[in-house]
Amino acid sequence: MSCCVLQITGLIFGAVGMLGTLAATAMPQWRVSAHVEANLVVFESVWEGLWMDCISQLGLRLQCKLYDSVLALPPPLEALRALMCLAVLLALAAFLVAIVGVKYSQPGKEGPPRVSSFILVAGVAFLLAGSLALVPVSWTGGSVVRDFYDPAVPVPLKRELGAALYVGWASGALLLAAGAMYC
């Protein structure tokens, strides 16, 4: 019975982690403008994401602009996009395989529950998806913190950690927990 509870818990963690990774990928708040020192322009916030930049004015008006060309993006942003998209696809595949694995590892009439190979595949896929999601989020978080404390970066260009990074860290942790439960 505890095996089934662990599998269902892993499935729930995997589902929430998958949806969170998808949300973090789509959110424009990866890097948000920092209001430090004598910066008096506080009625306007700048959000930078993987797919677009947005400007929020007093929380009333939000204007977003998609990046013009994929070819004009800096290589680190292309890598972040690719890793997050790969993490989402792998998390989705792991979730679907986990559903099949839970179905085929139900207890039979003749003895204890059998663990199918789907469970192991789902666990490895969840672990890999969680790792792939944590790399771009942590990379971005590290660069934001480094630039914030760098005196060479002008104050108007300083950014803070956005909500998407926190969602990405939590989602990556849930995917890793789901993978650990299945393994």
How would you characterize the overall build of this protein?
The protein is α+β, with helices and mostly antiparallel strands. The protein has one domain: Butyryl-CoA Dehydrogenase, subunit A, domain 3 (Up-down Bundle), CATH 1.20.140.150. It has four helices and five strands; from the N terminus they run αββββααβα. It has a five-stranded antiparallel sheet. Helix 1 (2-26) packs antiparallel against helix 4 and helix 3 packs antiparallel against helix 4. The longest helix has 33 residues, at 117-149. The chain is elongated. The two termini are 17 Å apart. The mean pLDDT is 87.
Low-confidence stretches: none
Q: What gross morphology would you assign?
A: elongated
Strand order of the largest sheet: 4-3-2-1-5
Beta-strand residue percentage: 5-15%
Number of helices: 4
Average pLDDT works out at 87
Q: Count all strands and give the number.
A: 5
Report the top-level CATH class.
Mainly Alpha
Return the CATH topology.
Answer: Butyryl-CoA Dehydrogenase, subunit A, domain 3
Helical residue percent? 55-70%
Helix/strand class: alpha+beta
Question: How far is it from the N-terminal to the C-terminal residue, by CA?
Answer: 17 Å
Oligomer: single chain
Count of discrete domains? 1
The largest β sheet comes out as: 5 strands, antiparallel
Which architecture name does CATH use?
Up-down Bundle
SSE pattern, N- to C-terminal: HEEEEHHEH
